[in-house]
Amino acid sequence: MMLIADRRFSLSRWFMCLLALTCLFWAYSCHRKIENPIPNIPNAEIDLDSIYRRGSIILLTENSSSTYFQYRNTERGYDFEAVRAFAQAHHLKLEVKVVQDLDEMFGMLMRGEGDIIASNITITPNRLERMEFTKPVYTTRQMLVQHKPTMLGADTVLAIRDSTMLEDQTICVHRYSAFQEQLNAMSERLDLDLKMENSSGEIGTGEMIRLVNNRSIGLTVTDENLIQMDLPLHDSIDASVPISEPQAIAWAVRKNAPQLLAALNTWMDHEFTKLLLNNLHGKYFQVDVSPVAINHAFELPPIPGDSICPYDTLFRRLAPSIGWDWRMLAALGYQESGFNSKVTSWSGAMGVMQLMPETGTTFGCDSLFDARCNILAAVECIRYLQNSWSARIRNAKERDKFVLASYNIGQGHIFDAQLIARKIGLSDTIWDGNVAEALLLKQEEKYFRLPEVKHGYCNAKEPYQFVARVQAICNQYKRSSQLK
Fold it and tell me: For the segment 122-158, what is each residue's pLDDT rounded down to a tens digit?
């Protein structure tokens, strides 16, 4: 609402009263419900024929644990991998634009700055007025996120156990979101007086969950598949109360892009696409790829005798070339694969030392299930990381920790963690209690959205644990008098 006051004239008392009443009405209606969430701007005249001439298709998505992120210097995410498969099937390059503000994402689509929004978008009536949606890629329910109760006895129960108990509760949700639409509809259907606080598009769902966990806000709403991924990060959160039936998640395109919409739907109808999407859903939403709690004990490996594994001779020969004790190299192999030369991780890392295919190629190994080739490439990768860190981290023991963390998650995330460490007053050259703690902050939107942070979201508990575990395994091997 825009009010223009002409200073050449004084406002009458009547007009001032009218103005005040209007503002009060506007504030109340804004508090209750916000309509027309999608920018009402003309759609750019871009369809599949234009995309073919360009040679690339532009994906609009957010940086999150399910949509798009970087892992071991490779791009990952449910939506990224799915759209990439469509692009490859149509011989198009894929360009990714990471947009953290959902409001801006809609505007960019309309203006032609992107071709597809694939970012956990729910099909809603409001959105259908301004854009088209593909066939659903999956379904999910909306879940109430609340703080677990303080346990006072066996009979302690959740504060809110079903949607009818939301009367007079304040719920913080993203303005224009599917969550807000659902709450508005539920409020009208059940005649509930819901109080909604609207956050801007710059505050994502992950940050809202963290705010509930910290008791900064009382309640929020998110999708069931997303909260299941985030629950291991927040030990004080409950998300067991649904507020919706299963809802369709799909990709959005402009209304004047029927060729693109038809091509996407046709591609989704293929059996191989259905299998791909099902596998990706399992990879990112159903399989527990989250590490256990940071301080959770883990079993040290047994030492069968006077050898660790079939690759001892190779470890002994190669380790001195990188200045490592051979038992450190063996510990890395154990932590990565348990010395299984044929294993492939959820992320695509392969073989004894769990190298990504791109990393293997870079360091001279195109056959990662060949243990010797895999280990040789891993040693070359470690040598590269050592050279990269040598000027930044002078202390050799500290440098080993930075090398291990970089090997696990990618050097870019560790550079980001150094930056965050400096920003919050920690040392950027000491791992334990400093850069390691700063790395954990890359799970929070407040930090991974900083303009200086170049590599975005990071599932940081994994490398946090990884460094300590490799060193603990190495020390276990060193304690054995049989393994000199």
Answer: 898 888 988 999 999 999 888 888 888 765 455 555 6
Handedness of CA 173, 178, 179, 184 (dihedral sign): positive
Residue burial 400-414, b: 16+ Cβ < 10 Å; e: rest:
bbbbbbbbbbbbbbb
Domain-embedded: residue 107 = yes
CATH number at residue 130: 3.40.190.10
For the whole model, what pTM was predicted?
A: 0.67
Task: Report the domain count for the chain.
Answer: 3
User: What whole-number percentage of the chain has pLDDT above 90?
Assistant: 47
Same domain, 109 and 150: no
How many CA atoms, within 13 angstroms, populate the side-chain half-sphere of residue 24?
6
Is 83:118 a contact under the CB 8 Å cutoff? yes
Domain that holds residue 425: 312-479
DSSP-derived pairing of the beta strands 131-133 and 170-174: unpaired
pLDDT band at residue 203 under the 50/70/90 scheme: low
Q: How far apart are CA 312 and CA 324, in angstroms?
A: 14
| pLDDT at residue 25 greater than cutoff 70 | no
- Average the pLDDT over each of 151-165, 286-300, 313-327 and give the range with the smallest value: 286-300
The DSSP code sequence of 175-189 is TTSHHHHHHHHHHHH
Element (H, E) at 174: strand 170-174
β-partners of residue 122 are 249
3-state secondary structure of 59: strand
383 burial via Cβ count (<10 Å: 0-12, 13-18, 19+): middle
Nearest residue to 228 (alpha-carbon basis) of 305, 289, 186:
289
Across 19-30, average pLDDT:
38
Q: Are 334 and 301 within 8 A, CB to CB?
A: yes
Residue 293, pLDDT above cutoff 50: no
For residue 64, the number of C-alpha atoms closer than 13 Å in the C-beta half-sphere is: 26
385: left (phi over 0), alpha (psi -120 to 50) or beta: alpha
CA–CA dist 77, 348 (Å, integer): 12
197 and 265 belong to one structural domain: no
* 100 & 207 share domain: no
Helix residue ranges, H only, 33-54: 48-54
Region class of 242: left (phi > 0), else alpha (psi between -120 and 50), else beta: beta
Instruction: Indicate if the alpha-carbon torsion angle 209, 413, 437, 473 is positive or negative.
Output: positive
Q: How far apart are CA 432 and CA 421, in angstroms?
A: 12
Same domain flag for 373 and 255:
no
* Cβ neighbourhood burial of 164 (10 Å; 0-12, 13-18, 19+): exposed
**CA distances for 317 relative to 311, 325, 345, 369, 372, angstroms:** 10, 10, 27, 20, 12
pLDDT of 386 higher than 60:
yes
Which residue stretches of 90-214 are H helix?
102-111, 125-128, 178-190, 205-213
